[in-house]
UniProtKB/TrEMBL annotation:
Annotated HTH gntR-type domain residues: 54-122
Protein name, per record: HTH gntR-type domain-containing protein
Domain of life: Bacteria
Record's keyword terms, sorted: DNA-binding, Transcription, Transcription regulation
Lineage: Bacteria, Bacillati, Bacillota, Bacilli, Bacillales
One Pfam family here: GntR
Length: 170
């Protein structure tokens, strides 16, 4: 049973009892739906900010991508359905679909009609490429900053050699 939805249903039961039988049936249907969606990743930790200036679909895409790259989401793992994620984040289904579509274009997830969206099993090269590009960007920033403080190429390479050696020792 999805932990996130179950937590949302607990208050609904007390509200249902207060409002009558119709609300109780609605809550009961949600509980059955939770059992039906067992195995889905309903408890993903995603948050969106309406004031950040960054589009919501980009925020979702980047957070899911980060969870895939760090191994929090394993290959073959089923992601929340587009509707469930939209409902839990209180955003449009279109926004969630756009985030999932972009993740699919990057090769990080695969959508199977009628089954859901899964972390792609063939994304090892894609993940390596993304990490490599991110590392290149960090190195470019480091080179620029080292030039700003007057380090020569040799000084920077010596620093990297020393730090790399320290990392391998620990």
């Amino acid at each position: 049973m999805g932990r996130f939805i179950l937590l949302l249903n607990i208050p609904r039961i007390s509200i249902a009892i207060k409002k009558g039988l119709k609300a109780f049936y609605y809550t009961y249907i949600l509980l059955i739906y939770d059992i039906y969606t067992k195995g889905r990743r309903e408890n993903m930790h995603l948050s969106v900010s309406l004031t950040s200036g960054e589009p919501i679909y980009v925020q979702i895409k980047e957070q899911v991508k980060n969870q895939i790259l760090t191994g929090q989401l394993q290959e073959g793992e089923l992601l929340p359905s587009i509707r469930n994620l939209a409902q839990s984040l209180k955003i449009s289904v279109i926004t969630t679909k756009r985030a999932y579509d972009e993740l699919e274009q990057e090769g990080l997830v695969t959508s199977v009609s009628g089954k859901g969206t899964f972390v792609s099993g063939s994304n090892k090269e894609s993940i390596r490429e993304i990490k490599y590009r991110a590392l290149e960007d960090q190195i470019r920033i480091t080179i620029k900053e080292s030039r700003n403080i007057g380090l020569t190429r040799k000084d920077l390479l010596n620093l990297v050699t020393i730090l790399y050696g320290e990392e391998n020792e620990s």
